[in-house]
Queue: 2 jobs
Job 1
Amino acid sequence: MPDTRLRRSAGVLLAAFFALPLAVLVVRAFADSWRAPALVPQHFGLRGIREAFSGIALDAFANSLVVAVIVTAIAVAVGWPAARVLGERRLRRPGAVFVVLAMPLLVPSYATGNGLTEWLLRLNLADSITGLVLAHLVLVLPYVIVVLLSAFGPRVTVLEDMARSLGLTPLQRWRWVTLPAVAPTLAAATFLGFLVSWSEYGSSLAVGGGRELLPVILLPFVRSDPQIASALALLFLAPAIAALGLAARAARSPL
Amino acid sequence: MSAALECVDVAASPGGALVLRGVGFSIPAGGRSVLVGPSGAGKTTLLRAIAGLQALDAGDILLGGRSLRGVAPHRRRVAVVFQEPRLLAHLDVVDNVALALRAAGVGRAKRRARARERLEQVGLSAFVNRSVQGLSGGEQQRVALARALCAEPDLLLLDEPLAALDPNRREELRGLIVRLQAELGLTTLIVTHDRAEAAELGERVALMLEGRIVQHDEPRALFERPVSAAVARFFGVANLLRGDVRDGLLAFGGAHIAVPGADGPATLAIRPEHVTIDGDCLLRARVVESVYSGSFVKLVLDCAGQRLHAQVPPGDAPPAGAQTGVALPIAHLWRLPGAQDEQRVGTAPTG
Amino acid sequence: MDTRHPALAAPTTPGPAAAVVGRDAARARVRRQRRRDRVALAPALAIVVTVFGGALLGALHASVTPLSATASAGATLDSWRALFADPAFLDSIAFTVKLAVVTTLAATGCALAVALMLRSRGTALRALASLPVPVPHLLVAVTAVLWLAPGGLADRILGGLPLELVRDRYGIGIVLVYVYKETPFLVLLLLAAMGRGLAEREEAAAVLGASPAQRLRWVVWPTVRGPLVIGAIVVCAFVLGAFEVPLTVGPNYPLTLAEYASQATQNDVLTGESLAAAALLFTAVIAIALAVIAVRFAKDPQGA
């Protein structure tokens, strides 16, 4: 059937369009020297990788990871009850809540971070993980809530009522009925929240100070040393892909 | 103008699976036929194929003698009323009804006037400038009907138009459809899964089983003279008595029934409503089950090893376990022609 | 016996007194639920309001209290006056607005075309089309540099690029990166809007004689118009705050608003922070104004 051939070629084209550009990162990271106009690097080597795994970069990687994990955990913990209320449409005027949640997403994060430093200096929280967590949290929380709220609604409430009528305790209900029912959306929300914090630049630069995060130390290398930049970029990309794999598997496994 | 519909050996596979397996079927110009069958039989697929929304693997569909092969849905002069109203929420009622005229390039004032006429025909003149959002299911379905009529098609298709309505509205809409169709003389095909509805809606009824038309006849013929055991079962002819005819007689439970046709194996069909309880009859049976259903009693009888279903007035019903006589009036006995389930039998249209 | 217990003497249908008790109990239940809902929402809203609100207040405070020698006088609009007197800032506004408008138009157009192509396709193609969504903007920008910069891969393959795409005066590289990232987001938005019953309504219009072009105009467009406009406003507001992308692929002049602010903090220690805060607050206010417009539009799509 001509339709499947068209579909397959469209798929291949789309995949190439998205995967090919990222492939150059891999090549560049391992190219010790790649002078124009060669299409293939002159020398392959591990200089970029060695620099990338040196002290500063690994510190930045660790900082980014710690902040992202803390922020995601708080966002899910705080966002779950809010998402429940919004998803089950129990509010008389949900519009106001959505506007409040949407504001931090539309305002440049550099502005939010910049304004926050005033307070962080006073509270002696400058250069701390706490400051970064706060700055990221205000960005991640709305994303997590908006994604998670789609999981809740009559479908889940009906299942919980059924569980209650069968005599399950609240904890059992939560573990065996609610959690599996919302698991795929929860995975997506967690994944998205982690990514937003991990990728965040503007407020990381404004608030970071001494504690540099990965994207912040990456950027200057783009002009000064593309090989190190590419290696760092691969490092930057890796957890996103890992998180995607984990989320896909979690969404499919029965609890 | 209304045209005759003819389907010739139509085969189609929506979603990869073969659903229509050589459908042969025709409606004369101005006729009203109902396509009935269990879910999954292919009724909606055939309707979509006629409308141009489903591609054919083989066969052809002719409207007014012209083949519809390769003709895009918006060029066939076929209008459809779907199971859901499918109205456009951003337009008011009149603009929804006038959609076909707008597509044909008719000016705004003229098309709205014609749409208003159609709304009056379906009894919704008060709803002209309303938004479609606040309308009930029945009202929306009538708007959809007005919209289809406004397109002035050669053929009107209705896919389970009464399915989503409550019983009162169903009755109203049924009457409206039959009346309008007769007034306008529009060739119409209605799809339903309900056999009673089929009898009430159609001049002729076609039963589709597993992608083929098995019998296309006046309603009474399908209910009382089914062409095969499958047709009999669908139309509620619950009694199929099998036996051997010798010298024109079928021996059954101690009695002999005169049966027309050749000697040999035969299947006799009789509707439960026509089986009567008569203590004096030679044919004896034991009441296995007796269920009171309000206006009648449903009996399951064991008669010479075969199951008989009867439907009798409550006063005539013997209790469960009783032995009684059973009468099978000759006038209501029907011998199934042949042993195959796929024979096509149709009498000439009465109209 | 008259001394029967009221419960025993009660008829099978509850009398008026029982009905009042039932109604009060129901109302109390609703009140309890409402209280529980408020408690559930409180932490999330509190975090957003205090942190974000605090950030805006902090920016406001910094913008009116520069660290210059005469700062002891209290709040002053000196920074704001200096900001709007700076031709670089005005150029920055023009540049950023142009970037936002061009990106929004391009992304909207692409997204509409892609969504129309994908609306009858399966989930596999849709999943592929949404691949850029998890990739960070910075990563796309870095890749853009490797490919599109002078001396980059595209330059070497084609033997020379017809125009400058990276660090050029017009910010074409910036637009390309944002269009690449925001188009899939808009496509997902559009596909979600199209999903509910759109195909069925198109079929209904088709059998009534509407050609494919007419179906697009009369059935598809009215359905996607609302979400598309909101999505466009969101993209516009987002690009107005462009920061790391122009830092990577953008020119050294003009700068986007966020870049300008960052530059200001490095120039003059005394007034820099205040200038930056003012510039960022200015950008934030525009973004908030766009958000309000989007919400208004969502409530009344016919008005806009």
Job 2
Amino acid sequence: MNIVVCVKQVPDTWAEKKLSPDDKTVDRVGVDGVMNELDEYAVEEALRIKEALSAQGGGGEVTVLTMGPDKSVETIRKALSMGADKAVHLVDPALHGSDALATSYALSKALGTIEHDLVILGVESTDARMSVLPAMLAERLGASQLTFARKVEVGTGTVKIERQTDSGYDVVEAPIPAVVSVVEKINEPRYPSFKGIMAAKKKPLTTLTLADAGIEADNVGFAGSGTEVTDFAARPPKQAGQIVKDEGDGGSKLADFLAQQKFI
Amino acid sequence: MDFRLSDEHEALRKTVEEFAREVVAPVAEHHDRTEEFPYDVVRQMGEMGLFGLPFPEDYGGMGGDFLALCLAIEELARADSSVAITLEGAVGLGSMPIYRFGSEQQKREWLPQLCRGEALAAFGLTEPGGGTDAGNPRTRAVLDGDEWVINGSKAFITNAGTDLTRLVTVLCRTGERADGRPELTSVLVPVPREGFRASRKYSKVGWHASDTRELVLEDCRVPAESVLGDRGRGYAQFLSTLDEGRVAISALAVGLAQACVDESVRYSREREAFGAPIGSYQGVAFRIADMQLRTHVARLAYYDAAARMAAGAPFKREAAMAKLYSSTIAVDNARDATQVFGGYGFMNEYPVARHWRDAKILEIGEGTSEVQRLLIARSLGLPV
């Protein structure tokens, strides 16, 4: 079974995130980039599936796919050092400014160049937090859509997941090819070993431009996006809290406050 | 000349930094308070291959070098010195002598399990009667047929009494040399073993989660082939082990010094006094700037020593200078960080208080600051 894991480089979780005032996109230049945390779970799950299948004598490869500027290669290296076999980097200045719709189109075209049965990705990225890409990608690929997976089981020609819901989980099964998005409950991602880091250097990395992937320039970037950021503002500073003094009526004051906020 | 790390070393540093932040730091205060050995952390370090960093893949290692080990130690020490010294003791003092001086059979037997972190080895050098005077041990090993019989005691031995400890290399007096000085031999003692006893843990000022014990050997018997390398080579072996170990301790000290900077920066940006963050006052800001300066210089000193070691160049003086300087500034930074924190710096639940307690030993262990000065002075040709 061949698995493609889509990963994204995002600004460091610990860094202050900013939008660039020029074109209203996420400022990726001034901050350290890291692999989107949820994508680490996706890489881990792909590796576990591959390892389990190979223990039963099955074959297949795990390929990492990323779309992003040159710097994203750091994130590719991390996935390779965790144990992925090879990587594809879709990089082209014309992709800058792509929204989820345009990104799903570009990734679906790039996926057309890679043999795959399963596409795994994190349920959302920590920068944009749209959580729509897995569904869009499945639609574009004409593949089964299995989202919010907290457990994945690969059968013969099918994939079964436990889909995380607010009240518990649903069991969903669908035929391959499929797009699976994972939540952080699914596993504990491994830390790359130094051997893995050294090996990552020698693993194949293919770079694709728009032309290589057969992507039409009009469908990506700002022009190809269905949404537009028209304005943005910094998050307002935290308001000072309200202190309730208990003079025998603390309980009812708290209840009033909660009622005011429509919590009760 | 380029002082930046290679991509691979930087990737390793980042990985261990992440591990230290996510896995080690959250439980550091707990282990410091309870003085429990961090078995769960050690297990995960083993899975990451940290115990095999500087050894060839052929022996179960990661195929890295000594700098890789130092970077891991530095990053761990930013979170918890006890965890960092557990790695340093296990690899630098436990496994390294086996790799450097052991027979092929000894390497095959011990290194794979040590590299996985499933077994820990310790190095029994210091004795209750003397630390710096290590070339004159009282512990004796006498050949009785095809067995060595060991009697004596060792003091302050790291990793000597954990549930994972499987091997202690013991420096023994095995006879007299022609010049009247003792013949010293390193003997491998697989443990647990009859006649070998690790006494209860010391009550230490710092390094609470590190396992440090006194060892007692009473008619402890091991096969004659348990000699590490050649008989009579013990003195040279431990001197060379300590030279390398000094670079690793320097890395540990740099990690602690950096942790003091990190904590001080964070706190002085948040903590307000007289209507402004304390970091806006020069008295605090300049103090932290000096802490960063010292940390940077100490890091360059150990990078230099490690680079010389990797290149096969002499590095004894550079190792002594790196160890002396970084341990001195680690103590300075810990003192200054607690001062930045004021009263909270004296509270054990704050990491800076732990760093302050953990720092002092760095000026003592693996050769005191006085020993380092002696080595530097002698390397300059001074008749001291």
